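thought: user wants a sequence for this fold. calling inverse folding tool.
action: design(structure=
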C-alpha cells in the first residue's frame, strides 16, 4: 500500500479512496465495480462487508448494506469472489468490517483467508485501540495494515496516540456524526489536520460527508487525500460513471 500511495503523492496528487458495499447489486457486480474504480485511478478501494447492525453507517450505506444482505451476500462469498479476480486489480484493497463478523468467522481463519484473497488493509470501526491486540499480531505477521479512525472529539493526547498507532493511513473523521453526503462542514479542520499530520507516520485522509468535487479539493488540500462512500454508492447505483471520474480527478493538484 505504501508504494502505491507514495507514487500518487510524489506525482503531486492527493489520495482518493472510494468506499463501496460488497455485494450491493449482487455479488456478480463486485469484480466489475472494483475494476472500474481501479481503472478510474482510485489510490485504494475500501470494501464494506454487509452487516446487520452497523454503528457508524448513515442511511445510504445502511441501505446498500441491506440490499447486499437481501442478495444473501456473506463474508465468505466476498473473500472467495475477491480471491478469484484479485490479480486484475492494481489498487490496494481495504476491508471495512465490524468486529462481530470477524469473531464469527474466527480470527485466525479470517486473517489467513483475507491474506490469500489479497487484502492489504483493514478498518474495524468498533475495535478500540486498547483491544487491537486481538487481531493486530496476526495482521502484522502478514503485513496487513490496521487503519485507525480518529474523531474530532478526541483529546489532543488521544488523537496523538491513535495517529501514531495507525498503519497504512490515518482515517480522520471530518464530522461529529454518521456517514453520508452533506452540503458543508461545520468545524474548521485546518488545525485538526495539522496536528494529526505532525503525529502520524502515514498519510492522513479525510472521510465522512465528502460528496462534491469542491469538497474533494478542499479536504485534499488540508490533508493527504479523501475517502468517499455514500456519494460513490449513489453514483454507482445511477450508473453515473463520468461523475465518479470527476470526483476522483478532483484530487489531482496539477
Ligand atoms: O459515506 P461517506 O460520508 O462518504 O463516508 C465514508 C464512509 O461511508 C466509509 O468509509 C465507511 C462506511 N462505513 C463506515 C463505518 C465507520 C467508518 C467509515 C465507514
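)
observation: tool returned 254 residues.
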Amino acid at each position: 500500500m505504501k508504494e502505491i500511495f507514495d507514487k500518487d503523492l510524489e506525482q503531486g496528487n492527493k489520495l482518493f479512496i472510494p468506499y463501496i458495499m460488497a455485494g450491493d447489486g449482487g455479488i456478480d457486480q463486485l469484480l466489475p465495480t472494483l475494476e472500474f474504480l481501479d481503472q478510474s485511478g482510485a489510490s485504494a478501494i475500501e470494501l464494506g462487508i454487509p452487516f446487520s447492525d452497523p454503528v457508524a453507517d448513515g442511511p445510504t450505506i445502511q441501505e446498500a448494506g441491506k440490499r447486499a444482505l437481501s442478495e444473501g451476500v456473506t463474508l465468505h462469498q466476498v473473500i472467495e469472489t475477491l480471491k478469484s479476480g484479485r490479480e486484475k486489480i492494481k489498487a490496494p484493497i481495504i476491508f471495512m468490517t465490524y468486529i462481530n463478523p470477524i469473531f464469527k468467522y474466527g480470527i485466525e481463519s479470517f486473517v489467513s483467508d483475507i491474506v490469500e484473497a489479497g487484502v492489504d488493509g483493514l478498518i474495524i470501526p468498533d475495535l478500540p485501540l486498547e483491544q487491537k491486540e486481538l487481531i493486530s499480531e496476526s495482521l502484522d505477521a502478514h503485513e496487513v495494515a490496521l487503519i485507525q479512525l480518529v474523531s474530532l472529539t478526541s483529546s489532543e493526547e488521544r488523537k496523538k496516540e491513535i495517529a501514531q498507532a495507525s498503519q497504512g493511513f490515518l482515517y480522520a473523521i471530518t464530522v461529529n456524526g454518521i456517514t453520508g453526503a452533506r452540503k458543508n462542514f461545520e468545524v474548521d479542520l485546518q488545525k485538526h489536520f495539522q496536528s494529526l499530520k505532525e503525529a502520524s507516520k502515514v498519510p492522513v485522509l479525510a472521510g465522512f460527508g465528502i460528496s462534491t468535487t469542491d469538497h474533494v479539493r478542499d479536504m485534499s488540500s488540508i490533508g493527504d487525500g479523501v475517502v468517499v462512500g455514500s456519494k460513490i454508492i449513489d453514483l454507482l447505483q445511477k450508473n453515473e460513471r463520468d461523475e465518479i471520474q470527476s470526483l476522483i480527478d478532483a484530487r489531482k493538484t496539477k
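thought: summarizing for user.
answer: Here is the designed sequence. Strands lie at 15-21, 45-48, 93-96, 121-123, 145-150, 170-173, 204-207, 225-228.
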